[in-house]
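Why do we care about 3D structure at all? Because function follows from shape, and shape follows, mostly, from sequence. That is the central idea of this module. The next example makes it concrete: a single protein chain, its amino acid sequence, and then its structure expressed as tokens.
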Amino acid sequence: MSDTSSSSSSPASPPGWARAVDFVCLALVALAVIVAVWGGFRVFIGSLRFALTSPYRLWLAALVLGLVRHLAAPQAPIYKDVPSRVLRGWRTPAAHSAWLAFVATRPAILFVGYLAVVMFGYNHERPPMRIVENEIGNLQMRWDAGWYFGIATEGYHVLSFNPTAQQSIVFFPAYPMLMRVAGRVLGGASTSFLFGGTAVSFIAFFWGLTYVFRLARDLLGDDDASRQAVWLVAAYPFAYFFGAVYTESLFLLGIAGTCYHFRRRELVKAGAWGLLVGLTRPNGCFLSIPLAVMALTPWLPRALSGGPSRDPQPERSWAALVPQMLTAAMPGIGMLLYSAFVWTLTGHPLAWAEGHAAWGREYQGFAALLTEQYGEIAHGLYAYTSQTPEDLLNASGVLFVLVAVWPVARRLGLAYAMLILVNILPPLAAGGLLSAGRLSSVLFPAHIWFASVIPARHRTGWLVSFMAVQAFGAALFYTWRELY
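And the structure:
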């Protein structure tokens, strides 16, 4: 089944380069509007100064590029082609399933967070951060959202790097930069940036769910199980981060989009999404590992290739392997680009990695983690659950994705099992159970596998149970309890 339907009356699509120029023109026009309404900016990268203070050059560049594009490829201008594509995409099963899961979960979780604030109150009477007194306007200013807000409004500032002091450079730029653009479009006030970040999270989450559906359908060959996978992602106990001003939604979109297009050998799209992943989170560069495994799929046993048994085994081709490996490197290249930027600020390209020590993330290995958890459980389950309930919740997310690793490898392919491992094991070794549940929320291969094995009569029960725990987690998160 295809996600889109073609029509003989549809205008001919332009070549790929022409469509790329169209989007560049749109970006230039949008940037010109932002500069005209809210002013430009000046950025220093080392001794180099970049200034953008006038919209006229941007408008002129967009006009010249547009004229050249339509002279060289006059078919299907973007203002005709894009709306028809969006409409066709909106009518697909992927968009329908994602929309239902989105509207059934995101507004409800924000409402639960708001009610928890006004009914239960804050953990320490007042929130540590406020930009407005109104609880609705301030609702999304929680935990790491303050760092993203600061980067979106003021950029990165490092006077003297100190790995023991918390600094903004540990937060990668893709999300706060999108938050900055959305905030300026919405008016440029303080609350505009929070609302802009929320809009970025919402749009990315919806879009990411469409990719989860499409990838699940490719891997399972079953629309019903694909819809269930979408709902499991949206209902997951730690999915409240998908509506917060956090990177989870953008990261989910990036890794799902990369995997979907890479599996189909649509390497340009996969490379673009992969680059975004590498610029979104520190562990984004690890996506290069499962992508490399995916590129080597033709050399793997059939049992570890993934996909329905009726799918043909890809042909082995060394000529095709080279561009695939280059595409697989894009998440790592995104990390290197940000490291080069950090180098200009601090003189040390990996200062963003060392900076995590200020949050308690230093390598301690798995032995220390297991010893610590065993020591706490040895005092009895009641003591463990009553004294360290946040560890219990985070550990439940870790166990869910780790238990899924082997069946994911057998059912979906080794690459998707590697995706789970490289995104959960390094943080466990370097920070224990800190934020482990949040990190597990984006590991959609576990949800796709789970959707394929849950009997239809049990699905509603699992979703209700997941959502109950998610609502509880949201209440803790929005009232500043330590579950982040």
